Amino acid sequence: MSLIQVLSAVSGSCLLEVHLGEDLTASDFVNELKHLLCSKTGMSSFRQLLLVEDRVINADESCSWEGLGRPSIVKVAFQSLVDSFRDEFLQSAAEGHACRVTELLRKCQDPNSVDANGETALWKASAAGHLDIVHIMLDAGANLDIARKDGCLLASSADCEKCDLVGRSPLFVAADHGRLTSVCSLLLANALVDKADRYRRTPLMIASERGHLAVVCSLLEAGAEADFEDLRGRTPLFSAAEFGHRTVVCMLLQSGADAQKADEQGRTPLFAAADGGHLEVVRSVPRSECWCD
């Protein structure tokens, strides 16, 4: 079993000692080593510059230990982030060009760059359902909970911050668009399940309003608060009932949502369903003794 030392290319200090065959495999040596370094240092693999005998290991080189000459010492330098390719990077993420996104990240493009509306590459990929790019961005260390700022032309940036900070996270926008695979990936990466926007709407609330049953189930399994209230006192159950999503209503009720919880105007989910003429939902919502009032 070979012992391999990973040294800082700057200070020469030992960052990591790994045993081949125990900590990582010989066939996928480079990729597994980068993941270990990311876990230890918090630096994404895109920022790691590996060197063997002071020779840089290029991304297209062999990833195996044998292919690198069976080194016992590997050096690593951590590259600084740049924002030189921001526009192309964000557009590529929005349009689903995974290869180009990866290429730009390898050039140390900042994964958390934002456009004029405050949208990150992860935000755009989550909204569009580009799961491969969502995974790439998570591997690159993208911030899960950077919120979006809806842009408009106002007199000053202070006004814009005050009026248009909507606060929708990548998880929120993925839930809004019903992107189940993106939602699951973000949850696995420990995105904040109840991170609310400016109006205190959570991912569960918007998914319930849209009727995305599978997304609702995933969020509930991840521990989303079923009775979270928005600024008007509406809960996910209220939203689902108001828009006539019977299956979502049933799922929320099975998860313990409070059927008697009223909004700021005193309206319950049953009232919202009846007011909207959603008969099937009305039949699904439990009635209190004074529900007719």
From TrEMBL:
<keyword id="KW-0677">Repeat</keyword>
<dbReference type="InterPro" id="IPR050663">
    <property type="entry name" value="Ankyrin-SOCS_Box"/>
</dbReference>
<dbReference type="InterPro" id="IPR036770">
    <property type="entry name" value="Ankyrin_rpt-contain_sf"/>
</dbReference>
<feature type="repeat" description="ANK">
    <location>
        <begin position="232"/>
        <end position="264"/>
    </location>
</feature>
<dbReference type="GO" id="GO:0045944">
    <property type="term" value="P:positive regulation of transcription by RNA polymerase II"/>
</dbReference>
<feature type="repeat" description="ANK">
    <location>
        <begin position="117"/>
        <end position="149"/>
    </location>
</feature>
<protein>
    <submittedName>
        <fullName>ANKRD50 protein</fullName>
    </submittedName>
</protein>
<dbReference type="GO" id="GO:0000976">
    <property type="term" value="F:transcription cis-regulatory region binding"/>
</dbReference>
<dbReference type="Pfam" id="PF12796">
    <property type="entry name" value="Ank_2"/>
</dbReference>
<feature type="repeat" description="ANK">
    <location>
        <begin position="199"/>
        <end position="231"/>
    </location>
</feature>
<keyword id="KW-0040">ANK repeat</keyword>
<dbReference type="InterPro" id="IPR002110">
    <property type="entry name" value="Ankyrin_rpt"/>
</dbReference>
<dbReference type="GO" id="GO:0005634">
    <property type="term" value="C:nucleus"/>
</dbReference>
